[in-house]
Amino acid sequence: MDAKLNIPPVTAAQQKAIIYIGLGSNLGTPIETVLIAMTELAQLHQSKRLACSSLYRSAPIGPGEQGDYINAVVKIETQLPPNDLLSALQAIEQRHGRERNGRWTPRTLDLDILLYDQLQIAHEHLCIPHSHMLQRNFVLCPLLEIAGNLTLPDGSQLTDRVADCPAGRLTKLPNPTP
Predict the structure, then answer these.
(1) What pLDDT is attached to residue 166?
(2) Which residue, 16, 139, 154, 170, shows the most beta carbons closer than 10 Å to its own?
């Protein structure tokens, strides 16, 4: 067990896990930032990038005036345990100037572990599946694009969850992905 988060490490029987990571940015040059982050995810230690969704423009969530977000989802295969993956993602965020100023604030880069195989973790610092993903079209639509037949850890089908999600303002962008 990881003493910090009490999360079991990846064992030999679990050598490789399939992970879905949500990306978002609405400060600086969001399209460029998300594309660069997709490349950085491909370079994670003990990991291999398997797929990238298209980029999507979405309305911000939360208080105050903010610019639109650019969002995407990346699928990776990794041998990193969840806590090590979280640390690696936070290091990428830091390199992009991420400041943690509370919930739903503008961000240079936000990287969220959406799913880690069928693992379910409920901890103060790490919640898998991501606690709000089923209410966010900017997560579900890109996820559907790269994992259309996905069964979620609760046994539900991704396609059904997308159909149940509020539409909101979401636009698929024509930009190429890395």
Answers:
(1) 83
(2) 139
Catalytic residue among 110, 117, 136, 154: 110
Report pLDDT digits (tens) over 15-33.
Answer: 899 999 999 999 999 999 9
**pTM of the shown model:** 0.88
Contacts of 74 (CB under 8 A, 6+ apart): 20, 21, 23, 38, 41, 49, 51, 52, 53
Higher pLDDT pick, 106 / 39: 39
Residue 4: CA count within 13 A, CB half-sphere: 9
Residue of 84, 112, 136, 161 marked active site: 112
pLDDT higher than 50, residue 13: no
* Structure tokens, 39: 């490349």
3-state SS assignment for residue 94? helix
Whether residue 108 contacts residue 102, with contact meaning beta carbons closer than 8 Å, is answered with no
Q: Is 49 designated active site?
A: no
In whole angstroms, give the CA distance from residue 58 to residue 26: 10
The reported pLDDT for the residue numbered 178 is: 62
Backbone torsion region of residue 102, taken as left when φ is above 0, otherwise alpha when ψ lies between -120 and 50, otherwise beta:
left
Residue 110 annotated among the catalytic residues of the structure: yes
Indicate which residue of 57, 107, 136, 161 is catalytic: 107
- Is 98 assigned a catalytic role? yes
Which domains does the chain carry?
12-168 (3.30.70.560)
